[in-house]
Design goal:
Blueprint (H helix, E strand, L loop, with lengths): L8 E3 L5 E3 L5 H44 L12 E4 L5 E13 L2 H15 L6 H10 L10 H6 L8 H13 E15 L6 E3 L8
Helix pairs in contact: 2-5
Length: 204
């Protein structure tokens, strides 16, 4: 439990109690300014979180209501959608983004691909070897770029091990997490262009 700071003192960054009489006025003013901004920011952050929760719930409820018009029942949250106001001035978008990862079967795919590169009698081109090596390159964060790995599936080689490797890549792909984003737009004048209503206080 945090000890209450006695009157006439302020706590410094090391947790020490310092008499306000020995603190410069500008330092006290700065402290008041920072704490007031943080207090307002916390209230705003809580309000935005509450707004996001309510907006997502209402969008989902409306989507289910719309589906019932066609005798359809929706199970759980679905994918991306766009809602327009009747006059077309406003647009609300729900965007769902999956974070994809590979499981241990990716190592099997890499082994099969390596065997393909070795077995091809005419040898694999340097360009293909570079593409494969880049695809399986691990970042500083220990992550593999899913886009580069999945791009290998666009290469259609008539080789049994290559096809098995592509199948292993597909099977190894897993959804680690899903994030849902809410974006709100307002039409610019009478044009077909929309501007985003920023909810990020870091933007100006």
């Amino acid at each position: 439990m945090k000890t209450e700071i006695p009157e006439g003192y302020m706590e410094d960054h090391k947790g020490r109690l310092v008499p306000t009489s020995s603190i410069k006025e500008i330092d006290i003013t700065r402290d008041n300014l920072v704490k007031e901004i943080v207090s307002q920011a916390k209230k705003l952050s809580e309000a935005i979180s509450q707004f996001r929760l309510i907006a997502h719930s209402e969008i989902q409820a409306f989507t289910e209501l719309s589906a019932k018009e066609y005798g359809c029942e929706l199970g759980g949250r679905k994918g991306n959608l766009t809602l327009l106001s009747f006059d077309g001035k406003y647009k609300v978008q729900r965007a769902v983004s999956d974070h994809l990862v590979f499981d241990e079967r990716l190592q099997t795919a890499k082994q099969l691909i390596d065997e393909c590169l070795i077995e091809w009698s005419d040898g694999a081109s340097d360009k293909l070897k570079t593409l494969v090596n880049d695809a399986f390159q691990v970042s500083k964060e220990g992550q593999i770029n899913t886009g580069r790995v999945l791009s290998l599936r666009r290469m259609d080689f008539d080789h049994e091990k290559w096809k098995m490797a592509m199948e292993a890549i597909s099977d190894s792909l897993q959804v680690a997490s899903t994030k849902t984003y809410l974006r709100i737009y307002e039409r610019v004048g009478q044009t077909n262009s929309y501007k985003n209503l920023p909810l990020d206080i870091a933007k100006s």
